[in-house]
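To whoever is on call:

I kicked off a structure prediction for a single chain this morning and the downstream step that reads the tokens threw a length-mismatch warning. I double-checked the sequence; it's 60 residues and nothing unusual in it as far as I can see. Pasting both halves so you can look.
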Amino acid sequence: MECYNCGNCKENNPTYYCIAKDKVIINENYRPEEKKRNGWKKGNKEYEVHRRNTRKEIEI
């Protein structure tokens, strides 16, 4: 059983498929990344402007 260098084992995923072994393997070295908050955030200047504009559109 020789490694095909597919790169699946080198990615930071909790599980991956190994072509050489022909099975799904649980990654013991998996390190979860911090979740990043995307989108509008209360208190952000662009959020407040966007919120006010949408409220004006609704009132009209």
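Update from on-call: the warning came from a stale cache, not from the record. Cleared it. Sanity check on the structure: The radius of gyration is 23 Å.
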